[in-house]
Amino acid sequence: MPLKISTSGVAALIRKLSETGRTVFAPVSRGEFTDFDRVSTLEEADLSRVNTRSSVKRLFFPPTEPVLSFALDGRRVALDELPPAVPRTFVVFGCRPCDAAALPILDKVFSWDCDDRFYLARRAAGTIISIACTDCDDACFCTALGLAPDSAAGSDILLTPFEDGYIVDPCSDKGGALAKACRELLGECAADRAEILRAVRKKLPPPMDLNAIKVWLDRHFDDDHWRNASFKCLGCGCCTYLCPTCHCFDIVDEADSRRGLRRRNWDSCQFAQFTAHASGHNPRPVQAARWRQRIMHKFSYYVDRFGTRSCVGCGRCIRSCPVQMDLKHQLKGIETQARGDRKRR
Amino acid sequence: MKELQARAHELLASGEVAAVIGYAAGTVAGRATPVIITKPADASSLILDASCVNNLAVYLLRPEVRRLGKVAVVAREAAIRAIFVLMQENQLAADGVVIIGVAIPSPGDIPAEPRLLPGRTRDELLEHLKRAAVPRPDAPAEDETGRMSDAERWDYWRRQFAACIRCYACRQVCPMCYCSRCIVEKSRPQWIETSPHERGNFAWNITRAFHLAGRCVECGECERACPAGLPLMKLNRVLARHVREKFDYVAGTSFEGEALFTGFRPDDPDDFTR
Amino acid sequence: MAEGIAFEPKIVAFVCTWCSYAGADLAGTSRLKYAPNVRVVKLPCTGRIDFHLVIKAFERGADGVLVAGCHPGDCHYTAGNYHARRRWAVFRELLRYVGFEDGRVTFAWVSAAEGAKWAALVDEVTAKVRQLGPFTGYRQINAAAEGGPMQ
């Protein structure tokens, strides 16, 4: 019999977590949208939206963080490697399955050629409690990428809305341990998951032929397609910054004549100066090249390197783009061309 | 809409312009999207309705568009003013662009239909701007910060700027932000810190607001694009008001005299210097 | 701040070479006594002042900023101070709007002959900023910036 928890059980869980010194993050209202913030009670959370404006990646890979401090010490320079700023342990409540699925994707690049101790320390300290989606909007397309409104990837516990509470599915050792620790709040239920998710599944798009898309991408690096597809893109960082899998960063030093901090900040491949060299040369001098990079990185290069796409279909890029560079639409266009190519071959 | 499509068709078919920048139906329901068409047959894809909000003047200085030669652009009032500012600042030749002026009424306006403006020349469009009492986009009933103390206002703006993630959507959607290298991208020295912490965000947002003083046409795109919900138009409106009150200057409404900070008068207001 | 030590404001002054710096110099050669709180940054002309200089001064701990140049009509470069004055008229409104207290930034005309005016001006600005107190608003922004990611 699947486990369940009532809404008041959830409220008690959040209270208990806060009281035992664990920071709880949940979506909180910011007027027109929600974003993750600390809560100490369930009442403070706003779970009514399809998703938060910016993604859960902020809690593991923040927009800015100091990594090193340095100071003049007589004639020496004293360097201090800073520890990652991590709440001792924390729980993310109310994450969507798409955001949760982004974390194992990010894990790969952050433990690739070196272990990013900042990101990994937060991953170790964090527990993800996701809530499956019973609704979506026009921008959602997780199913096109092989995910689902109740995907378990990346979650430690997946909650599925049911009656006056949720079905509880521990998905990892961490989740299992947490479920055990609060077993007095859990009960049992008989639930028809398919029924609960039937409505939202109808609205979500069918799977795309991602392999065909990759083949097309690999064959069409130099193609007029990119110029046409990218015309209206204005090169802001909205899509990349709100994206749960985008991870480019810049390292800057902020100092005066005596001391300073080295920081790691979000950066975006869509910025004009992103690939500018010290020589003055810029290998991606036009938006077409930058837009191409975005698609290629997510749907080809990342696959080659790490065996997975770096997109979870959350749709934030589509919702936030000031000019509607609709990634889902663009992928469908490429898929159509790819299928056409295949027929012709 | 038909009138707009016909005009676009005429401009392309005659070869007067290489392309028309306008609005087409978006892929997300209820939102128009910018489009560039080069073939007369594509003129039928142009739309004109209340969802056509982007300020298309932003595309005029992009190298991809400049390379095409002379283009036409569908321009709402704020975009017309933006184009005039670009001309005044010598970024566009006086005959460097064909302006297809349009009016998209707000609910309750009369007439209620989106339509082409009758003016075609620069002077005709200027006349229209002078005569039309077009409501400001997204004008708030009042600015609540007006009732705050200094300390409260500081806290308010501190909170707003703290949310900024430095995506620069505000800058990228703005037709007035056309510097090939923005001040924040200059690193020798780095005057404005790029980090999205409070100090860097404060410097960025204040600097950008000031760089737009006397140039902002209040189209509202920056605030609409901002993913963090910063009330950027508050800053732009207050500066536009001061510029109007002190210098009788409204961006993009006149070609007489010099731009606000290019010119000066020996008797400029001076009630604040010691 | 250590106990028992009263707050002494740090004032950064951006002055033009030809008039205001010379005026400040005259105050010195005339042995005029005035508040020692000001740190002078010399520029060729007030017309050169970008406002990120003013913001940077506050970021680096200034409690007040003084900007001084030639009187209108007397600019060594003919019109630099006229341009500056226009910008100042607008920039100060922006600062006030986001909550800078009146008196944090002061604009003045000081000629090369006005050593006494310079001294009196610095005393006046120092007293005003001392009364306003440390610029805690900027201290808070700096602290938040140094404090690591906002979690």
Largest β-sheet summary of chain C: 4 strands, parallel
Question: What structural class do you assign from the helix and strand content of chain C?
Answer: alpha/beta
Question: What does the radius of gyration of chain A come to?
Answer: 22 Å
Count of structural domains of chain C: 1
Look at the structure and give the CATH class of chain C: Alpha Beta
Task: Find the count of extended strands of chain C (DSSP E, 2+ residues).
Answer: 4
Outline the structure in words:
The complex is a heterotrimer of chains A (about 350), B (about 270) and C (about 150). With about 350 residues, chain A is of the alpha+beta class. Chain A has two domains: about 5-65 and about 75-205, no CATH class; about 210-345, no CATH class. Chain A has eleven helices and twelve strands. Chain A has helices spanning about 5-20, 95-110, 115-125, 175-180, 195-205, 210-220, 225-230, 240, 285-305, 315-320, 325-345; strands spanning about 5, 25-30, 35-40, 65-75, 75-80, 90-95, 125-130, 155-160, 165-170, 185-190, 250-255, 260-265. In chain A, the strands form two sheets. An eight-stranded mixed beta sheet of chain A has the order 3-2-6-7-8-9-1-10. Chain A has a four-stranded antiparallel beta sheet with strand order 5-4-12-11, with no helix packed on it. The termini of chain A are far apart. By secondary structure, chain B is α/β, with parallel strands linked by helices. The model of chain B has no long low-confidence stretch (mean pLDDT about 90). Chain C is an alpha/beta fold and about 150 residues long. Chain C has one domain: Rossmann fold (3-Layer(aba) Sandwich). Chain C is built from five helices and four strands. In chain C, strand 1 (about 10-15), helix 1 and strand 2 form a beta-alpha-beta unit. Chain C starts with 10 loop residues before the first strand and ends in a 5-residue tail after the last helix. Chains in contact: A-B, A-C, B-C. At the A-B interface, helix 8, strand 11, strand 12 and helix 10 of A face strand 2, helix 6 and helix 8 of B.
